[in-house]
């Protein structure tokens, strides 16, 4: 049960638990930056015009083939 909950997915993407935790933490922080840029852009449209979409595209490029 512990293996399935904590280790199965990291193993599937060829990472240890701690490597996966670090990757997911950085991914989360980067998404937070994208969300903040989008929020500022919503109020002041001339700022961060492509920032959020560029960040999301970069994250997708890093993750779309993981575990295959």
Protein architecture, described:
With 68 residues, this protein is mainly α. It has a domain at 24-68. The chain is built from three helices and no strands. Helix 2 (17-43) runs antiparallel to helix 3 (51-63).
Give me the secondary-structure topology.
Layout: H1 2-12, H2 17-43, H3 51-63
Helix pairs in contact: 2-3
Comma- or semicolon-separated keywords:
68 residues, mainly alpha, 75% helix
Count of DSSP E strands? 0
Work out the helix count.
3
Radius of gyration: 16 Å
Secondary-structure element sequence? HHH
Distance between the termini: 24 Å
Q: What characterizes the major β-sheet?
A: none
Q: Helicity level, as a percent range?
A: over 70%
Average pLDDT confidence is 96
Shape: elongated
Produce a short descriptive summary.
This protein is an all-alpha fold and 68 residues long.
